[in-house]
Design brief:
With about 280 residues, this protein is of the alpha/beta class. The protein contains ten helices and seven strands. It has a five-stranded mixed beta sheet, with helices on both faces.
């Protein structure tokens, strides 16, 4: 028998004692001060911030999308998720940002974290606007600079550190992930999934916080990125629905962490052309 479906211990099903009546609410000034302190402590301690950003949309989960250069697939998914009001951040796992150049041996190479999408756009526009408009790079960068400031590298991300600077820059999806933690990481290529899982294992899970790492295998071109973005949004909706219900996909009990494989299996039936992988890791 699946241990998740095992009968509950009778001690856990016993009727709990009636709770005491809650105390009256504090005066308005004290209540406002308490809410402010709760918000600040949530950011500094890396806890879930249910009061920022995701209450209005009914969202409970926070997402991160990852590809090699934080340019095409992860950014299309970042745009889709943030446009649907999900808290979202995105990264690349490569050593450098690499974009196609005039030949296969002459790529355009940029460092992560310090190069903006705007500067890349300006440079390529000056080099060969016709080439880079034809191959879609300028259009891609126009989309990217409307989502966030620039590409970030996964391995350089200080997990649990406040991301207030990204919120101040106006990054889409930044409202809700100020605490520097997410619930689900979605990679767009198996080697990126390997890099994320290996990195999390090496970090040692100091926050003792579970995170689901899911790979949706998407070919690195503009057309497949559009399809993959739709599929990732569909997966996010399915995961979020189960998380908000607080029960399994078929209405039975169980924690969200236990039911993620079931949700992923149902999603895979709807998107068989996008092979998926899953692992439960720790921040």
């Amino acid at each position: 028998m699946d241990p998740r479906r095992a009968p509950l211990d009778p001690r856990r099903t016993a009727t709990p004692p009636q709770p005491l009546q809650p105390p009256p609410p504090p005066p308005p000034a004290l209540q406002q001060q308490h809410q402010s302190n709760t918000h600040t402590n949530g950011i500094m301690n890396g806890n879930l911030l249910e009061t920022t950003g995701n209450n209005e949309s009914g969202s409970k989960l926070k997402f991160c999308t990852v590809c090699a250069s934080n340019q095409n697939r992860s950014m299309e998914a970042h745009l889709r998720l943030s446009s649907a009001s999900y808290p979202c951040i995105s990264f690349g796992t490569g050593s450098l940002v690499r974009l196609p150049g005039p030949t296969i041996t002459q790529p355009n190479v940029y460092p992560f974290n310090i190069t903006s999408y705007q500067s890349m756009y300006d440079e390529l526009s000056q080099k060969d606007p016709r080439l880079y408009r034809t191959n879609g790079l300028l259009t891609m960068l126009e989309r990217n600079l409307g989502v966030k400031w620039g590409p970030e590298r996964w391995q350089d991300w200080p997990i649990g550190a406040p991301r207030l600077e990204n919120l101040a820059k106006g990054d889409k999806g930044a409202n809700g992930v100020e605490a520097g933690v997410v619930d689900v990481v979605i990679t767009c290529e198996e080697r990126c999934w390997d890099a994320v899982v290996d990195d999390l294992m090496n970090r040692g899970g100091g926050l003792n916080r579970p995170v689901h790492v899911i790979n949706v295998d998407i070919k690195d071109n503009h057309e497949e990125a559009l399809v993959g973005g739709k599929a990732i949004l569909d997966l996010a909706d399915s995961l979020n629905e189960v998380a908000n219900q607080g029960k399994g996909a078929d209405g039975q009990g169980g924690t969200f962490d236990e039911w993620v494989p079931e949700v992923l299996a149902d999603w895979q039936e709807r998107w068989p052309q996008l092979p998926a992988l899953w692992s439960l890791c720790w921040f």
